[in-house]
């Protein structure tokens, strides 16, 4: 399935994809309004988790190595960013660079040890490392991570660079990009630019000979070894790249909201990115972004629907029908949002194993098979 | 792909990037420019005012969260003049009229904190940014409460803390926009220690098992200080991971340590498990140093007592409020809560209900929804008739001061809700402290 979409040379079509992707992402504040998601925090989450899932997909989608520990890099990236805010400067540039560097180092160590095994053993090893990181952050390393309460930026932190430049913090310290405070929509656009950059890098990797070798690892590692390639360097490098994506996503989370908590590293967070990737479509370029947005949408919008809202939705119906509809639908919203997500996930896995992207492809194929009819309809 | 190339003969990479950025800038510009200037964040312009109730609906504290949500809904009903009015009738002094807040009908939005700081902040941000909530309330863990409190400070809305017991919430992490009605670990220690000394004597050796996170540590420290001041000795304080499930490896060493009291600084499911296992190990039937071995659970709640079953009989602890109290406010609240839902409210429900009413009352007193005015009205506000007797919101740290209940697990419960009996009502003067002992600063009002 992957070999079909990999084309060795970058064509103009890729630029077209990038341009459309950028336009859709950057205009999100306009169209997301229609589905009730047009507020900065959720849009930021879409971009950040989209980036996280794109990076995860580079490892899982291309090489087939199922990592259950990617949340560790997310957390490490967040902590690095907050420490940069505390010690160096509220400017995001050093923070992002520090996060990328530290998550890369983490990924080299964890990857070097975990990639000695394949399949389920690899998954378990990564899970073990992530849980270890989580527990360390939660209690043992409290001086560094501030444990359960989470690491926060305080007004009286040293911030050496800012002090040298004579920059004073007024009110609560907020992340900035040379004077532009990255809060609200400004924060979203910063995340969106990072997402587009990340998307472009992933696209180039998909299209490159390097990406081809990663797919070769997935399809038949033994055969690849016989042809004279050593898969280890490729695996380790893509693991590190994917770890850097996660670290960058973690850094962005701390940038738009200067706080880092240990829960970000919990196994549920690692599982979430697996779900996002599978839901959207493993091994596709856009799938992970769509999957990430879907899950975050459910988490934030569906969980907020309560009976009061349902009554308003079904207001046009007669009273008894209104009551009935509210009774029928209320288990699936509010605290039942996990249930709805579970059902959606099952439906997708059973009927569309390639994720939401496969659904789009099937619709597209319907029109392509009968081009005459499609044109008439248009 | 050659077809595509023909379709766009003159398009270069640079050209495409330029075009896409230009398109994006044009489409995005209006959303940045139309950020209209309000006097303060989420100033209500219509006929309604929106409050945000942010509680755990999934996860370990979902029971508490569900009860908090019931209380919030009841409070909104009473504020809007529906139902029997509950504590609106007993609160003194009260500016509430039962016609909403400042004449605007109260509506609410809900969210799921999942007992995680990230999820709680995301949920609170949605309420503030999308739904226009003026006040956020709720929370069933101190970590979450502190995280949301600092968010509300940054965003410029009021945070009325729900169930949070750590000293830090109004101690080193206190904020100008955050208010807590619930009591804290320090008060638990001050209230509990004299009762313990009275019941078990002054010559005791205590062994602490502590949940290994912020709340556990502050509680351990508070109880240790309070008991040691009365002559107790602390043999050991062992940290246990949160959500351990099996505590047998931590309980076995207690028997050989020479300690004769076990103090469990656990909450929620951890407390249910550790207490049940300690009782199963026969700790309470032992005689150590010629004295009967005792177990103490400093923070008790009825929902936890329900989970622990027979194990809680005779165990001492503290609680913020209990539905069996016989003052006017408690009776009115239990009555309307029972009429609505068919069972008595928990302490989490009471604190959330009271917080909502206090916020509404402060808006009425200030005559505005402006957070700076509301903060001013709440600071130093003295009130009565909300359970717990005369209460004061101390201006220095936004902590409520009121009587603390020392409770004991009932030997012969008459129903599944009648699990605790009030052993002593410790007067407010005994649990008061100097706000400076915990450090931290409130900061400025942010509107």
Secondary-structure topology with pairs:
The complex is a heterodimer of chains A (378) and B (447).
Chain A: H1 2-5, H2 12-26, H3 28-31, H4 40-63, H5 71-87, H6 92-114, H7 119-140, H8 142-145, E1 151-152, H9 160-165, E2 176-177, E3 180-181, H10 184-207, H11 209-219, H12 221-226, H13 231-256, E4 259-260, H14 267-280, H15 287-301, H16 307-313, H17 319-329, H18 337-351, H19 356-369, H20 371-377
Antiparallel strand pairs in A: 1-4, 2-3
Helix pairs in contact in A: 2-10, 4-10, 4-11, 4-13, 4-14, 4-15, 5-6, 5-7, 5-13, 6-7, 6-13, 10-11, 10-13, 11-13, 14-15
Chain B: H1 2-7, H2 13-33, E1 48-55, H3 62-79, E2 105-112, H4 117-129, E3 135-138, H5 142-155, E4 158-161, E5 178-180, H6 185-200, E6 205-211, H7 214-228, E7 233-240, H8 248-255, E8 261-265, H9 269-280, E9 287-288, E10 291-292, E11 294-299, H10 302-308, E12 316-319, H11 328-341, H12 347-366, H13 371-378, E13 382-383, E14 391-393, E15 400-401, E16 404-409, E17 420-426, H14 428-431
Parallel strand pairs in B: 1-2, 1-3, 3-4, 4-5, 6-7, 6-8, 8-11, 11-12
Antiparallel strand pairs in B: 9-10, 12-16, 13-14, 14-15, 16-17
What does this structure look like?
The complex is a heterodimer of chains A (378) and B (447). With 378 residues, chain A is an all-alpha fold. Chain A has 2 domains: 2-278, no CATH class; 305-378, no CATH class. Chain A contains 20 helices and 4 strands. In chain A, helix 5 runs parallel beside helix 7 (119-140). The model of chain A is unreliable at 1-9 and 372-378 (pLDDT under 50). Chain B folds into 2 domains: 48-183 and 323-402, Response regulator (Rossmann fold), CATH 3.40.50; 186-319, Response regulator (Rossmann fold). Chain B has helices spanning 2-7, 13-33, 62-79, 117-129, 142-155, 185-200, 214-228, 248-255, 269-280, 302-308, 328-341, 347-366, 371-378, 428-431; strands at residues 48-55, 105-112, 135-138, 158-161, 178-180, 205-211, 233-240, 261-265, 287-288, 291-292, 294-299, 316-319, 382-383, 391-393, 400-401, 404-409, 420-426. Chain B has a 7-stranded mixed sheet with strand order 7-6-8-11-12-16-17, sandwiched between helices. Chain B has a 5-stranded parallel sheet with strand order 2-1-3-4-5, with helices on both faces. Chain B has a 3-stranded antiparallel sheet with strand order 13-14-15, with no helix packed on it. The termini of chain B are far apart. The relative contact order of chain B is 0.14. The interface between A and B is large, with 52 and 61 residues.
């Amino acid at each position: 399935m992957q070999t079909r979409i990999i084309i060795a040379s970058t064509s103009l079509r890729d630029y077209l994809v990038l341009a459309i992707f950028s336009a859709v992402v950057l205009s999100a504040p306009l169209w997301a309004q229609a589905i009730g998601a047009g507020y900065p925090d959720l849009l930021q989450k879409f971009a950040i988790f989209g980036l996280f899932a794109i990076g995860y997909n580079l490892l899982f989608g291309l090489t087939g190595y199922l990592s259950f520990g990617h949340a560790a890099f997310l957390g490490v990236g967040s902590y690095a960013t907050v420490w940069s805010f505390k010690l160096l400067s509220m400017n995001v540039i050093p923070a992002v660079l520090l996060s990328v560097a530290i998550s890369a180092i983490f990924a080299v160590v964890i990857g070097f040890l975990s990639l000695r095994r394949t399949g389920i053993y690899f998954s378990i090893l990564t899970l073990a490392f992530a849980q270890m990181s989580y527990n360390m952050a939660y209690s043992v390393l409290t001086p560094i991570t501030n444990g359960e309460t989470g690491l926060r930026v305080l007004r009286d932190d040293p911030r050496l660079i800012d002090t040298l430049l004579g920059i004073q913090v007024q009110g609560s310290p907020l992340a900035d990009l040379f004077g532009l405070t990255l809060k609200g929509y400004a924060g979203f656009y910063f995340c969106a630019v990072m997402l587009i950059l990340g998307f472009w890098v992933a696209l180039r990797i998909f299209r490159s000979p390097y990406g081809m070798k990663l797919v070769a690892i997935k399809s038949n590692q033994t055969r690849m070894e016989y042809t004279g390639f050593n898969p280890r360097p490729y695996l380790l490098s893509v693991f590190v790249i994917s770890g850097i994506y996660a670290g960058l996503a973690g850094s962005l989370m701390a940038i738009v909201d200067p706080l880092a908590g240990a829960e970000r590293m919990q196994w549920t967070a690692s599982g979430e990115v697996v779900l996002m990737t599978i839901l959207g479509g493993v091994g596709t370029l856009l799938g992970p972004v769509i999957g990430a947005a879907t899950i975050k949408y459910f988490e934030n919008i569906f969980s907020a629907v309560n009976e009061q809202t349902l009554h308003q939705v079904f207001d046009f119906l007669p009273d008894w029908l209104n009551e009935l509809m509210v009774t029928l639908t209320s288990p699936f919203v509010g605290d039942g949002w996990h249930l709805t997500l579970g059902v959606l996930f099952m439906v997708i896995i059973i009927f569309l194993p390639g994720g939401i992207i496969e659904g789009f492809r099937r619709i597209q194929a319907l029109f392509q098979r009968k081009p005459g009819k499609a044109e008439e309809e248009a | 792909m050659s077809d595509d190339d023909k379709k766009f003969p003159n398009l270069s990479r640079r050209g495409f990037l330029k075009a896409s950025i230009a398109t994006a800038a044009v489409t995005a510009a209006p959303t940045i420019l139309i950020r209209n200037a309000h006097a303060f964040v989420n100033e209500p312009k219509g006929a309604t005012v929106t409050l945000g109730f942010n509680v755990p609906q999934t996860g370990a504290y979902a029971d508490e969260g569900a009860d908090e949500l019931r209380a919030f809904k009841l409070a909104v009903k009473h504020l809007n003049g529906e139902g029997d009015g509950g504590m609106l009738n007993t609160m003194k002094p009260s500016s509430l009229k039962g016609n909403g807040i400042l004449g605007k009908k109260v509506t609410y939005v809900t969210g799921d904190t999942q007992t995680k700081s990230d999820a709680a902040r995301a949920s609170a941000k949605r309420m503030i940014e999308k739904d226009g909530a003026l006040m956020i309330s709720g929370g069933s863990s101190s970590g979450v409460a502190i995280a949301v409190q600092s968010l509300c400070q940054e965003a410029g809305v009021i945070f009325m803390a729900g169930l949070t017991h750590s000293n830090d919430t109004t101690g080193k992490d206190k904020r100008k926009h955050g208010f807590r009605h619930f009591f804290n670990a320090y008060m638990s220690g001050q209230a509990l220690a004299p009762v313990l000394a009275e019941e078990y004597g002054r010559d005791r050796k205590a062994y602490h098992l502590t949940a290994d996170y912020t709340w556990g540590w502050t509680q351990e420290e508070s109880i240790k200080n309070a008991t040691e001041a009365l002559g107790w000795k602390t043999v050991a304080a062992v940290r246990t991971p949160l959500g351990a499930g099996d505590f047998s490896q931590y309980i076995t060493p207690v028997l050989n340590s020479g300690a004769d009291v076990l103090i469990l600084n656990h909450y929620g499911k951890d407390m249910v498990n550790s207490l049940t296992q300690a009782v199963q190990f026969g700790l309470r039937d032992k005689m150590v140093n010629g004295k009967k071995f005792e177990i103490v659970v400093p923070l008790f709640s009825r929902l936890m007592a329900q989970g622990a079953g027979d194990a809680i009989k005779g165990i001492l602890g503290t609680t913020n409020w209990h539905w069996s109290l016989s003052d006017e406010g408690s009776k009115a609240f239990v009555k309307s809560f029972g009429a609505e839902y068919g069972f008595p409210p928990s302490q989490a429900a009471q604190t959330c209900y009271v917080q909502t009413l206090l916020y509404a009352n402060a808006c009425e007193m200030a005559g505005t929804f402006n957070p700076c005015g509301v903060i001013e009205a709440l600071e130093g506000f003295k009130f009565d008739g909300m359970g717990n007797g005369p209460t004061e919101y101390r201006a220095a740290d936004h902590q409520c001061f009121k009587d603390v209940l020392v409770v004991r697990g009932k030997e012969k419960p008459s129903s599944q809700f009648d699990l605790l009996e009030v052993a002593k009502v410790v007067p407010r003067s005994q649990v008061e402290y100097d706000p400076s002992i915990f450090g931290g600063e409130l900061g400025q009002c942010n509107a």
